[in-house]
Amino acid sequence: MMRVGPVVLLAMGLLSACQSPRAGLPHGPDAYAVIPPPAAGTTRGAYRIGPLDVLAIAVFQEPELSQRDVQVDASGNLLMPLVGTVQARGKTAHQLSREIAAQLGARYLVDPQVTVSVTASVSQQVTVEGNVTMPGVYDITGAPTLLEALARARSPTRVARLQEVVVFRTINGRRAGAVFDVAAIRNGRAPDPELLGGDVVVVGFDAVKGAFRDFLTTAPLVSAFRTF
Fold first, then answer.
1. pLDDT of residue 42
2. Which among 120, 99, 121, 102 has a CA at the least distance from the CA of 111?
3. DSSP per-residue codes, 71-93
4. What is the crossing angle of helices 205-218 and 6-17, to 10°?
5. Among 48, 62, 98, 102, which lies 20 to 30 A Cα-Cα from 156?
């Protein structure tokens, strides 16, 4: 009787998962842990900091901590004196100001006043592909939701599987993905997730299977689908 090694079994399992993205990627409530909806109280349309943006950070009466022309790296992070690495991608300037102030205040300063401004921005884009009327790469401002991105692509086609819409995102240098039910979002039964520059939206069963195949040819087998 032929023996099948563990690596082969894992590969077979991953390939079979391609037949249903729900078998590998988080879906339902778990999907929103990866691609969350807009935070409560967030101003819609506010600019979200992205990779390679240039920022000015002013700490009131602390010139040694203030910085001009700080560039966000390709992973969406920046380095702040005393604080270290700070995740900037996806935050508004106001949100980043509050986060830096909180970290400085926790250990180093009393009631620090921090102001962050974007001095140069790089055009951010979202890719929408699969079973939509006009697939393509779309420039974005702020942070559109999934439904807004689909509207830019002239909506899913009639044959699209609305329960199989996948959003891929790079988080801290690693690729992650989640499955969303657009029909439930449209009906108000599920939140509308917020997209960031660099996200890839794949609509429809056949297109999703193709995206998984692309992943399997480039990613280690042990990197099963949640974060890869």
1. 60
2. 102
3. EP-TTSEEEETTTEEEE-TT--H
4. 150
5. 48
User: Phi and psi dihedrals of 95, rounded to 5?
Assistant: -65, -40
Half-sphere exposure in the Cβ direction for 154 (13 Å, CA): 8
pLDDT at 174 over 80: yes
Structure token digits, residue 142:
């702020």
CA distance linking residue 135 with residue 182, whole number of Å: 17
- Tell me how far apart the 2 most distant CA atoms of the chain are, in Å: 76
User: Model confidence over 69-126: pLDDT tens digits?
Assistant: 999 998 899 999 999 999 998 899 999 999 999 999 999 999 999 999 999 888 688 9
Q: Which amino acid is at 154?
A: R
Residue 6 pLDDT: 42
Cα(79)–Cα(83) distance, rounded to whole angstroms? 8
**CA 150 to CA 144: how far, in whole Å?**
10
Which domains does the chain possess?
Answer: 6-42+123-218 (3.10.560.10), 54-120 (3.30.1950.10)
Q: Tell me how far apart the alpha carbons of residues 184 and 187 are, in angstroms, rounded to a whole number.
A: 5
Burial of 189 per CB tally in 10 Å (0-12, 13-18, 19+): exposed
Token readout for 211 is 């995206």
Is 87 within 8 Å of 96 (Cβ atoms)? no
Contact in structure between 135 and 71 (CB atoms under 8 Å): no
